Batch of 4 targets.
Target 1
Amino acid sequence: MSLSDIAYSVLDLAHARIDASYGDAYAGMVASARHADALGYQRYWMAEHHSMDGIGSSATSVLIGHIAGATERIRVGAGGIMLPNHAPIMVAEHFGTLHELYPGRIDLGVGRAPGSDGATMRALRRDMKSGVDDFPEQLAELQYFLGDACSGQNVMAVPGQGSHVPVWLLGSSLYSAQLAAQRGLPFAFASHFAPRLMLEALHVYRAGFQPSEVLDKPYAAIGVPVAAAQTDEQAEHLFTTAQQSILALLRGEHLRLRPPVKSMEGLWNPVEAQHIRDFHQIAVVGSPSTVKRKLTQLAKDTGADEFIFAGSFFEPQDRLTSLQIVAEQMRGSV
């Protein structure tokens, strides 16, 4: 499989710098989305997280509308909405509204994780007793409210009903792969932070796939951590910002972006270092030639239909440069 046959997209968390505001993060997000739009990226997704100091993407559908309004071609959506946190009809209404505002450009990826801790789940009024056991029913309800109205249907998502906004299933487990296969939905695996089960999940999804009105064959995307620069050394230096973020997550510290450092030695202990390396197992970090080599190998290993790139950069220009380098390698141009 050639890289030029694989779609390439972006995942954004509206990650704020340690010395800046969320407004600054949103401005950087718009600049990145416009750059990605011009570079041929397929979609620009936002992920729902709550009560995480430094991650500004909690009001996911609001940001999706903001990005869609600032771009022209690129698809914009959720990667994803944590469905158990919401009533399916309200999700359908939000994304039905986005569809009316930006026809043919909105995606709705949904997941079953909370995107938060237990205390935050309670603040979200999530039913702790039901947990995620009713996720298949919630997914069916969401699809019902996005589909054509049924005869005698009394409760409808307005707007939303009949919009057929594309629904993706997201996950980091075999459960999500199995459900996506059963429902015939596109599947995005969260290998940008949980790569251990990636290959097994892709196999489960493809082997169990049942054609549907949505898809006649499997379509799998994978999350890929990335930091591209003009040299390997520069890229590895920039990548320490992402490594510091995961270290902060492990330690329960704030997640605001920290500037890159010369070395992570002295900042992490051996156990933390191994955990973070496992977290970033499939990370693509390096110069243009290194990025191309690693992406080519990743395509061969996974057979993915799409790469969804996630990167954390302290300086906005470094992120724009990385987006451009990656796009050039994916297109096979220089």
Target 2
Amino acid sequence: MLFASVSHNIGEQAKSLKASAKQIPFAAAKGLTATAKDAQGKLTSALPNQLDRPTPFTMKAFGIEPATKQKLYAKVFVKQDQLKYLGFQIAGGVRTPVRRALVVPKGVRLNQYGNRPLQGR
């Protein structure tokens, strides 16, 4: 006959589990932050499909607020300066000029993004 003996020290496992429990909020924060960074990347890569030749400034529109052990949530948001004009792309509506609207003359040279280049730069 073959006899097998199995023994296990539950006390050691309990200590190990208790030590690991302290790392759970850290691991959750890392996972939430990684998810937010992934979402930021996906939103940024989708911009050229939604906008015609977005400028580098527009491509940097999305920011993240990372999660921490104390704050177990992460945020992906549109930065305030870009939200002023991207809000119309997101929610719809009509964008009216802040000051007086200028008519762009025919044949004016445009930059690679389809905008008039700034004077003096």
Target 3
Amino acid sequence: MRFGISFFPTVSPTEKSAYQYYEECLDLTVLAEELGFHHVKTVEHYFHPYGGYSPDPVTFLAAAAARTNRVRLVTGAAIPAFTHPIKLAGKLAMLDNISGGRLDAGFGRAFLPDEFEAFGVPIEESRRRFSEGVEACKLLWTQEDAVWDGEFYRFGPVTMLPRPCQRPHPPVMVAAAASSDSCEAAGRAGHNLQLVPSISHRERVQDMLALYRKAWVDAGHAPGTEHVQLSYTCYLAAAEAEARRGGRMSHENYTSKLAEAVSAWAHTSSAQYPGYERLAQQVTSSDFEQALRDTKILAGSPEQVRRQVAQIRDWYGDATLSLQVTSGNLPIEESARTMRLFATEVMAMFDRGD
């Protein structure tokens, strides 16, 4: 198993300035490399305390690239629906070169109605815009005199500069929420997969992974070469009581910010997002203790978290865990402590194959 760090801001300007948040995350990025974590990842969201401090993951990851030499840099995920593919492909290719070929290019559909409305993009077009944007980026990365004649974009012939450092292009990752179709499509296309197990039942996640891995092999991709990335909130302390305190605070902060961001679903419906009109109610009913029992949150002493990670491996097979160690509202010292404890007393055990 491999382990990385995820930066998903759930913080408002009244709690912490953007400047302070970025400085703290960049300091934690340096620590992540020192401790041997596989990657750092950040999101693309707008307007809300839920993710709003990260409207452009490429900007943050470029700063992270300047302070590191080895750690992978992951967009988790960039949103093709909100950016012209020429602009998006160019930004990502620049980042890949600046970092010396350390980019994993994650793409997502987006799911917040307020964001689609602000960009003037019909939410019913989200899947088609996503698919077209990803394929157009891959074309721009790999072909000279590229020509695209799609539903939403037309361009060419154009030759993108710079070309990506990684050839033929950076690894492509697809973020999926609860869509089996998205998982199967990612497997057929040979894309790696990003999932958030906390939003689905364990059996549902297992089914999605099985469909993805079967589609991967059926499409002729080498078995076992796929890369699955699973995201979890993580909080460690030497004492269980302290770990539960911090884990609960992180969970409650995240769910309160998410509930505000998804409130528009109470008066929005879309065939592209079945069941999302109940999302706000589901978020507000989330219980920390139940989530902990269901291993949807990693929190506890190192020994307890080791057991949780072993359980995840048994459930989902070989995967990379992306750990949310800071939401922005807790002191950076607590995030650094979590990372050090995880690296020395959890990650080290699994690196030995235990």
Target 4
Amino acid sequence: MAYKLLNLLALTSLAIVAFSSGVQPANALSNNHHARDTGLRGHGALAKRKRSVNEKRCKVRSAPADSSTVSSTYSSSADSIPAPATTSTWSDTDSSSSSSWTSTSSSAAAATSSASSSSSGSGKGCLAWPNGEQSYLGDYKTDKTSLIYTWGETVPSNAASLGFSFAPQLWGNTNMDAFAKTVVAGYAKYALFLNEPNESGQSNIDAADAAGLWKQYMEPLKALGYQVGSAATSSNPNGMTWTQDFFTACGGGCNPDFVAIHWYDISADGFIAYVQEWYTAFNLPIWVTEFAYQDFNGDDQGDLATIQSFMGEVTAWMDQQDYVQYYCWFGAMLDMQNVNPLNTLMNSDGSPSSLGEQFLYSG
């Protein structure tokens, strides 16, 4: 009996040591291995903004009680946003995933022509705006910025008078009814489709189901004078696959005028290659509706000078590409939610930061 008791105590001690040593369960390792092996990065912080039904950034956030000020808190915990998912931290610069699909849309040529008309670079800047009604929105309207979107169907009431065009978004299953009621003839010129349907923490919609949503909500808008954009997938490599599957499921019934994409990483060359890859794959104008200098897999997030250099290089390049219609830096906000706060375009009072001034005036 004593011998058995000693064996039991020994086994218990080993178990305690193993537990305290921080050994990870097998599924945690498997969830992270691809990011480690490939070095691909991207947008996993969109758990950075992982939205619940009521607090998603796809809808305009309520203005602060005192609209003349903005909270300078950067903590994502303030909005109860989940931690980033390691499986979505990607940025695909591997051209092997390019698609041979070519748009059959009758409006593709017209959209490309429209893109060419704005090749001077002035006006390509876009605001991805989660701040709701704010008087300081006017500080962000310059010759470089001409478009605003809010991850939803509603627009700040002063946007039109300031000279912004608005692009409402069918974010996902959570705002379909509101989108259909709001986005009618004459409401706007553009409309955006799903937000990162290839990510479980975002709109998370199967490509085949998305094809049905497009035919119901988006394709009819073209007859009302809208230019409509594809779903904006994250830069996870499966985003390209999802988009290819979407067009296959559509059977020729989905005809976007432009392709929307997201990108997060720290390589200007990687960013440029990624944009080129999507344009080559689908032969449609590009809207980069989220991008920032952010490495979700590493510790080197860059200082302000590095971020400014990156912004300058990639925006100057996009200004020279006829097929890039708009680009929206992340972010025009203070709560950057797991993205390096040095990427913010705002000071604590809502006025443009030094990076904001660069984006608004020089790129």
